[in-house]
Amino acid sequence: MKILVTGGAGFIGSAVVRHIIQNTADSVINLDKLTYAGNLESLSDVSDNERYRFEQVDICDKAALENVFEKHQPDLVMHLAAESHVDRSIDGPAAFIETNIIGTYNLLEVSRAYWNQLDEVRKSAFRFHHISTDEVYGDLEGTTDLFTETTSYKPSSPYSASKASSDHLVRAWLRTYGFPTIVTNCSNNYGPYHFPEKLIPLMILNALDGKPLPVYGDGMQIRDWLYVEDHARALYTVVTQGEVGETYNIGGHNEKANIEVVKTLCALLEELVPEKPAGVNCYESLITYVADRPGHDVRYAIDASKIERELGWTPEETFETGLRKTVEWYLNNKTWWQRVLDGSYSMERLGVTAQ
Ligand code: NAD
């Protein structure tokens, strides 16, 4: 099968592309605009493979999308391209509205026109899989409830509102046009190749550099954490075996307060990197509480029993094993993150030379 993956140069998308190329016989067309979050160096293990192709395209550019469908004739679409960082959505929501809502609308329309002209066999096998977040469900503060596939939407941030909007569009295209869509909503991912603006890589790299570890508010915000390779495997399972029209929640059974995550990382670093930067006695002493994010949700927790029961997927990593692997990966892959931090990963791509 030929699978069109949008956002395949991002954190989760690149894990999906690596998973498909390394573990299946399928081909991948990676369609990505290469925003600041897109990094082709995350695909260096698979980019020489003859089953891998890359197209630098913006999902807001309808004509360019049509060309990609015409040229590559995909059997399945996995849609991950998005603006994904909550803090950036608060500072500048426009790109989130453009890419996450208008871009998804464009992709739905181009995919539907393409699907309509397929022969009956290919048409009935086609799937449009929309990858979304548990943040669309809002805040579970003060309850012990879990998000299920029927929980009402109550997004809090411009990011989660834009993802909620795109989820609604995808479901409307199923209901109105019979277009074969599937939606997955997943909890927080962590693991290799994570852009250093996100909590876990930011804390690892700041600690190694002896910089403050900024924790929002009292650090008691609870998130469920899933190792990114477990998510990639879940997504491939859903796009190949999931039921059209269904939603599957994906999560790791790892509810942790942010401060607990940061302290666990500090303990791992004490063990793995005992020689600390000058002036640092212990990594935990770098923890610095900062003003909370506006509208910050207090607790997310996900019930992933449907995908486990119906599709037989379960996470392979516990939080402890996944976090250790992640810290070890950052310690062993300095070139990848140093080139992200100094900007050279994108400057070379743009033909600009570092001064
Ligand atoms: P990311 O920011 O690391 O990657 C996004 C990718 O999309 C980048 O490669 C970027 O270049 C590309 N992109 C952005 N705008 C584009 C456009 N207009 N056209 C084409 N490509 C564009 O994001 P991620 O963390 O890998 O998340 C991927 C998807 O999974 C997103 O839809 C996100 O909402 C969802 N998700 C993320 C998490 C998480 O914890 N990171 C959890 C659940 C769901």
From TrEMBL:
InterPro entries: dTDP_Gluc_deHydtase, NAD(P)-bd_dom, NAD(P)-bd_dom_sf
Aminoacyl-tRNA synthetase in keyword set: no
Reaction(s) this enzyme catalyzes, per UniProt: dTDP-alpha-D-glucose = dTDP-4-dehydro-6-deoxy-alpha-D-glucose + H2O
Record key words, sorted: Lyase, NAD
Domain NAD(P)-binding: 4-326
Domain of life: Bacteria
Essential cofactor(s): NAD(+)
Record-listed E.C. numbers: 4.2.1.46
Catalytic EC class: lyase
Protein's GO biological process: nucleotide-sugar metabolic process
Signal peptide: none
GO molecular function, one term: dTDP-glucose 4,6-dehydratase activity
SUPFAM superfamilies: NAD(P)-binding Rossmann-fold domains
Family annotation (NCBIfam families): dTDP_gluc_dehyt, PRK10084.1
Family: Belongs to the NAD(P)-dependent epimerase/dehydratase family. dTDP-glucose dehydratase subfamily.
Descriptive protein name: dTDP-glucose 4,6-dehydratase
Lineage: Bacteria, Pseudomonadati, Pseudomonadota, Gammaproteobacteria, Vibrionales
